[in-house]
Amino acid sequence: MSVPASGGYPQYSYNTNPSGSAFIPEIWSGKLQVKFYKSTVLAEITNNDWEGEIKSMGDTVHIRSIPTITIRNYEKGQTLTTEAPTSTPIDLLIDKGKYFAVVVDDVDEVQADVKLMDIFSNDASEQMKIAIDNDVLNNVAADAAAANKGPDAGAISGDIDLGETGAPIHITTTNVLEKILDVGLVLDEQNVPEDGRWMVIPSWMAPLLKNSDLKQAYLTGDDTSPLRNGKIGMVDRFTLYTTNNLNVVADTVDAWHVLAGTRDAISFASQITNVESLRSTSTFGNIVRGLNVYGYSVVKPEALVDLYVSKVAIP
Prior knowledge:
Distance between the termini: 50 Å
Number of strands: 12
Helix content: 10-25%
Oligomer: single chain
Mean pLDDT: 83
Shape: flat
Low-confidence stretches: 227-231
CATH topology of the largest domain: phage-related protein like fold
């Protein structure tokens, strides 16, 4: 907006005199404003153990599991009971796909003062990661082992409340650490290794955690409170990740599925990740398009925990 002028004095700015004597131009900055993207965590919490087997062909990997052998008591002279071990394979289906396609007209490409195609393709790459991250995070909770979710969780104890539909756990600064420790106990009762444990929480839980008794440094295995720099880091035996990619569940109150486990729990495989450039056949311009064909499966349900939470109490 131009500086005001006294009555009768001409304005030379374009935005006040676009069709007259516009001697003062409007300037479009060649530097674009920074764009913020949702944080993605998929690469940190999943494994790619079977991706190599499906890269070149096929749409399904049948994953064989190791059967559990029965141990029996023995007495001298008894007739032995034998068993033929069997296992139920888990299928990893490559049945999902996402794409983008962007066209930039030749005239726009030449006349623009920024590299349009680079900007568009870079944004598309970020949006692709976010879309796939969102797909996985919001569709695996149901496949957690029955003893790893609900109001009666715990393969041994059976009395750990992790919330359920209609009754999410109201998370506060008072109980947030308690529930993280409960999740750790659920994994302990499934004999899940301590190394490599992770937890993905919605962003609103992070301030509650930082304002809790997190200053008890022994929970982090650190001699100094993690509040020293505002980073959550490791709590109990979990590396914590915050994200806005966990969708809100419309329950009695807004709720979220907080996920925890180890990388053994979820297997992800990307079969095609292809970005290509080509000339448009319907206009004078270049097209950049990308395709990602992928699949995922919870291959170790006992290594995945679903903590169902809300940030307000049920009325």
